[in-house]
UniProtKB/TrEMBL annotation, chains A, B:
This is Butyryl-CoA dehydrogenase. Its cofactor is FAD. It comes from Geodermatophilus poikilotrophus. Belongs to the acyl-CoA dehydrogenase family. One of its GO terms (molecular function) is flavin adenine dinucleotide binding. Residues 477-592 form the Acetyl-CoA dehydrogenase-like C-terminal domain. It comes from the Bacteria. Coiled coil: none annotated. Residues 293-459 form the Acyl-CoA dehydrogenase/oxidase C-terminal domain. Residues 163-266 form the Acyl-CoA oxidase/dehydrogenase middle domain. The keyword Repressor does not apply. Residues 40-157 form the Acyl-CoA dehydrogenase/oxidase N-terminal domain. Keywords: FAD, Flavoprotein, Oxidoreductase.
């Protein structure tokens, strides 16, 4: 069988089973109905549907981005056709409870399944991605009635969902949102305001859209503490679940992006008076949970959403790598170094060391990022289903610490894998006749959305590593230490020693940064800190993968070892200069006056 | 006056006059008619025309790429309008001899002038860029008659030129071209073959197109030694200079690229029988110089072409930086770190340290690359007009050594500046409503064309630093040493010491790499070598700029110091890990079997 250029099933099997021991999860009550066979079956299904229904229109959707026609967002028909197959196969429900018609798959398996769709067509896969996140949030914080009314149709794939947070003037700074939600006598709210960057904000893919909207109730506390969360459906829902009046949520414009074009990205107006549900002005909204706790609810779901974005960045890099590898094996050009005979035959370009260097680098980023994403997804399962409270708390703390890295690291290095994929293709890679340029454009969004990488850096250094007296960082160090201890006496002892040194360095640098008493100095260097710790974490996961190869010497496992060695020799050393810089408490950026730029 | 977002005239004046002392050139006979005033006047003119005629259609040309209609390439009309103004202003002729109607500008001034057009609209500016390179090559190697027939109309801007090297199966490996040129009794040749990636290969901008084509004369030596260079005009030219028959050069297709869309990029068929000039098959070609020396002639012009590509990459990064700076000064969001009052006003985002970090990094890449490009252009002037043969030879050797860096370094870091420019803009930067995403797409071509960066790496490590017993590298070390000596006792002594150490390291690493006797080991690490030496060179040019600021303390010069400090503290240290890697003679890439990827 010709191997897929979307993702590597072989690698997924390695990560899930040879490394993460995912099959062990079936011993837990929640996953008792599952087995290696059911996991395999759903992965087979995902690969098949991604290959047959998602990948073929990836370019089509890029070239024919959503258009606004008569106030509606119109997409190419292939998007709906693919999503209908996805829903029909039960994949929207994959991770959800049986009681809602779900398969109760472990999150780590769900992420591996969904990776196929993101890699095949990130634009189309955004609709279910957002819907699943929306449903999860409501399951955690919505009322029974809200779950029955809105979540069930989402899990059934009949309605899709959005997350409507940002506004034109408030992207990263949600404290500044101005959308208002005024309470009504009947317990509902009426919303007015404008939301920006809302993916999936309008379309005709489903009969209704469930918007989750952040807004402020007048009289509440200022800033982020006064933000509440509301369900604002496109169509109001009658008591029997049928669709009622059109709510006053109106498509005000589409954003035209460099990539990710298949996903409608919208400007939405709430309560502008285009519709007047119930004869009253304002978009009807239903409060989720308690007032003023909206951001807390959102952040509760943020770990999974951010890991999801990191996974998207990884698999876009991964498919770029696979396409470059295929190209390098088939494209002939040039001679082996030292072959002076001009009559000798050109060789496949994979024979050139510099091409292999690029492929090895891309492999180490793509497979390293996938390991990171699945490791974090496994932690979500631990957090939710580990036997003891202590294990669950431990998983929660480690996941919390790793989340900014799981979002930002693949968002930085996945695009580099795509950049290398273009370079391997040469001029052909720069043309739209080959898919790698689209992966590159699509992937550029990932360092921006779901919290820019700069925000992730502040989250890691400003919150995660200092919370609870540094318990998160200590736990990460212990966890890495357990791995390096296992490497003693193996061929990986050198990598383990370098990792131990980098871990120690992280601890001392963190103490130095916060020891100044001047948070500005610390936070001005947060992005470098994030990069250094991110590389350390991925180097650790490469050691984990190398150790999981023990005893296997086939080409696949040798490839893992080669990438681990590459990451050790070529990548981990980057962190030394970064730690040096951090330790020097450099003030260059802080001291540069704005007028001098 | 609102400062330009295309380029900074203030910076150009600093580089040309406060640093490179370009005015000194007017003491030389070739530039005797010039003065600071004439240089200023042509720079003023360039800024004005770039602003008024090139920048406005940059997005238009991107969105309406050339189409093939009835076998012709059709462009938006703004391209011709802009180029007519450019030609009318005498800018095509800027650097050429007065005898051809030129201004005899120094190359360094010509590059500064042309930088405005590349930054404003890289797609449209490619036509004159190619034409000037074509004309320069013919001036150096063509016959008197060829110059009169083909070069004069090019300098007058009536005809444009191309460079037709690559073929579908032969991009980087010109040895493998198969286009044939068969000698005829009348001294002309008849060419048959297909050329790929030919920029400006067809259009209606000018009445004729002068193709410079590499082809093999049957019976010649195999490989690169059997390549000859031919003039193949789109229309044959009668003795009186008027246009005659259509030659058999046919537009076979257009390449659809991710960026650089304004430049027609073509597949051309030569001698396919669509036209039969003189009733005979084959495209009529005229040999330039001697048979089998085509590649030598091409390489003679390569330094300037490669510096030109590097300049393009730099100024695309530069304009990205300026747009990001403007955005960061006007876009408000978030609060100063530590400002806990939620009622405080949002600040311009330039107030956030992480935004300043990104701007400072982009500034250091853009202005560092511009310094590199103009320094090399100044060397071209030295090479051609310095008083003594020794000075000219010295300039030639240094230029030869720096050329792969001048091409590759900006091609790597200019796109990073554009990447940072998008990030500063957040979600807006990812939309096509802002120009930075186009700069990012356009700039991605630069590491590919005019010799991929991998080819530049082989050129530097495999040829330039070993040629003449390492004389090039020694000269570079001496030149850098002269700068660091001047820094003694200044605030820059620390940077100078780090530079001296890096220079010493370059020498020892080069010796180690070549000392193995195994060229594979050396060349497998060529790209890292190029990156490390490139960063060293740009750090040196930042020291040069910092020293040129001595005695000035206004915001502009403080900004130069801030960027120099940034490059010293944040960028130069990257090279340590790279040199360590090189010194270890790492075999990871070499030893990775193709089957393991």
């Amino acid at each position: 069988m010709r191997s897929s250029l979307i993702l590597s099933r072989r690698d997924l099997d390695f990560l899930l089973h040879e490394w993460l021991g995912v099959e062990d999860l079936v011993k837990r009550p929640r996953y008792a109905e599952h087995s290696r066979e059911t996991f395999d079956a759903v992965l087979d299904l995902a690969e098949q549907i991604a290959t047959e229904h998602f990948a073929p229109h990836n370019r089509t959707a890029d070239e024919n981005e959503p258009r606004m026609v008569d106030g509606k967002a119109v997409l190419v028909p292939e998007v709906k056709q693919a999503l209908d197959v996805f829903v029909e196969a039960g994949l929207m429900a994959g991770e959800f409870d049986e009681e809602y018609g779900g398969m109760q798959l472990p999150h780590v398996v769900g992420q591996a399944v969904f990776a196929w769709f993101k890699a095949a067509n990130v634009g189309t896969s955004a609709y279910p991605f957002l819907t699943m996140g929306n449903a999860r949030l409501l399951l955690a914080h919505g009322s029974r009635e809200q779950i029955d009314t809105y979540v069930r149709p989402e899990i059934e794939g009949r309605w899709f969902g959005t997350m409507a947070l940002s506004e034109p003037q408030a992207g990263s700074s949600l404290a500044d949102i101005t959308t208002r939600a005024v309470p009504q006598d009947d317990g509902t709210y009426r919303l007015t305001g404008n939301k920006m960057w809302i993916s999936g904000g309008d379309h005709e893919l489903t009969e209704n859209i469930v918007h989750l909207v952040l807004a402020k109730i007048p009289g509440g506390p200022p800033g982020v503490k006064g933000i509440s969360l509301f369900i604002v459906p496109k169509f109001l829902v009658d008591e029997d679940g049928s669709l009622g009046e059109r709510n006053d949520v109106v498509l005000a414009g589409l954003n035209h992006k460099m990539g990710y074009r298949g996903t409608t990205n919208t400007l939405l107006n709430f309560g502008e008076g285009v519709h007047t549900p119930g004869g009253q002005p304002g978009a009807v909204g239903y409060l989720v949970g308690e007032p003023h706790r909206g951001l807390t609810y959102m952040f509760h779901m943020m770990n999974e959403a951010r890991i999801g974005v990191g996974m998207g960045a990884t698999v876009l890099g991964y498919t770029g790598y696979l396409h470059a590898l295929e190209y390098a094996r088939t494209r002939t050009q040039g001679r082996r170094a030292g072959a002076k005979d001009p009559d000798s035959r050109p060789v496949p370009i994979i024979g050139h060391p510099d091409v292999r260097r690029m492929l090895l680098a891309a492999k180490s980023y793509a497979e390293g990022g996938l390991a990171l994403g699945l490791y974090c997804a496994r932690l979500v399962d631990e957090e939710q289903t580990a036997e003891t409270e202590e294990e669950r708390a431990r998983a929660h703390l480690l996941l919390d610490t790793l989340t900014p890295i799981a979002k930002a690291w693949p968002s930085q290095w996945g695009p580099v894998a795509d950049d290398l994929a273009i370079q391997v293709h040469g001029g052909y890679g720069y043309t739209r006749d080959y898919p790698v340029e689209q992966f590159y454009r699509d992937n550029r969004l990932n360092p921006i959305h779901e919290g820019t990488n700069g925000i992730q850096a502040l989250d890691l250094l400003g919150r995660k590593v200092v919370a609870r007296g540094g318990a998160g960082l200590r736990l990460l160090a212990e966890t890495i230490g357990a791995t390096t201890a296992r490497a003693a006496g193996t061929q990986w002892a050198g990598l383990a020693a370098d990792l131990d040194a980098a871990v120690a360095r992280t601890g001392s640098v963190t103490a130095t940064l916060w020891g100044t008493g001047d948070p500005d100095v610390a936070l001005a260097n947060a992005s470098v800190y994030l990069e250094a710790v991110g590389h350390l974490v991925v180097a650790w996961l490469w050691l984990e993968q190398a150790l999981a190869c023990e005893g296997s010497t086939d080409a696949f496992h040798e490839g893992k070892r080669a990438a681990a060695r590459y990451f050790w020799r070529w990548e981990l050393p980057r962190t030394r200069a970064q730690f040096d810089l951090l330790e020097s408490l450099d003030r260059t950026v802080l001291d540069t006056d704005e007028a001098c730029l």
